[in-house]
Amino acid sequence: xxxxxxxxxxxxxxxxxxxxxxxxxxxxxxxxxxxxxxxxxxxxxxxxxxxxxxxxxxxxxxxxxxxxxxxxxxxxxxxxxxxxxxxxxxxxxxxxxxxxxxxxxxxxxxxxxxxxxxxxxxxxxxxxxxxxxxxxxxxxxxxxxxxxxxxxxxxxxxxxxxxxxxxxxxxxxxxxxxxxxxxxxxxxxxxxxxxxxxxxxxxxxxxxxxxxxxx
Length: 215
Ligand code: HEC
Fold this sequence. Notes:
The protein is an alpha+beta fold. It has one domain. The protein contains five helices and five strands, in the order βαβααββααβ. The longest helix has 15 residues, at 15-29. 29% of the residues are buried. The site of heme C has 25 residues, from helix 3 and helix 4.
């Protein structure tokens, strides 16, 4: 089950709506009986996201690109990295080109406005995608959750589950990502906890009850 917050800014260009929404949210925020479930609605996400077909692949790399495509589908990269896929409506023209629907990384029980990350564009576009990343940087993001400059861990993406991917498979994924169509698409900046996000987001999460001891 994925939850999406109901109290969202729908149209940033509509100043009146924005004003009304802000008032509504301000009213919600000052309500001492804050019930997080009031802000969220359940979303059905049964769709499967195909990986895009490689464009031109040199004959010697074909086998590896096909394996990379298979792995990207199997590991569900497009479920997060494709616009709309998180709410079951993938935009097929922008497969793997990043999501303007974000994923919250702090608990809605603790923060009315949770921190949100937007899965980035992983097509080979130089400006908005991973075109300028080295093969090694992409492989390290995948297997160790290391951001491009090595200065922080990637949030939300389940890289712990990808840590055991072999070198051959990691580089097959990298090769495949380089072989697909570059799509120009910039996702919103990450939002720190406590700040209201300007783009919608969903929540996955594991929340541990206080005082629960596992023997
Ligand atoms: C559960 C959602 C999710 C899945 C599944 C997922 N990712 Fe991610 N990925 C993210 C998020 C969110 C970020 C950015 C996090 C951050 O900036 O802290 C990210 C970041 C990345 C980055 C770094 C790109 C950049 O510009 O910072 C790469 C490369 C990447 N993912 C590749 C993949 C590949 C390949 C797969 C499949 C094997 C995959 N991801 C599966 C959510 C996901």
